[in-house]
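Researcher: Next entry in the queue.
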Amino acid sequence: MENNEDCVFDLSDLQFALQVLGGKWKLYILTSLYFGKKRFKELERDVLGISPKMLIKELKDLEALGIVNRQTFNTVPITVEYSLTEEGLTLKPVLDHMSEWAGGFKQNANSKMPT
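Model: Structure for this entry, 115 residues:
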């Protein structure tokens, strides 16, 4: 980074990423979908503590952004599956790096904690 304009640009990109992925539940939902298609109830079981109303809201947000795909099947009762879109699949390396970083950082932080 050679000047302050580059810093502002980079920070705005980071701010945008945090707007898209931020909040209490989105990373949990994306991590669950990382492993493949899920029905609503499966997501509800994976994302412990989320209410059905909040899960619906977060899924709609992620769908509107083009990160999550919602597919309905004409069954009785109607089956709905959620999956990552092509754009959502680009988050896999980001989630992998976050997991790696957290594992290392957690280990360092735990070793520095007073006993």
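Model: The chain has one domain: 23-112.
Researcher: Noted, moving on.
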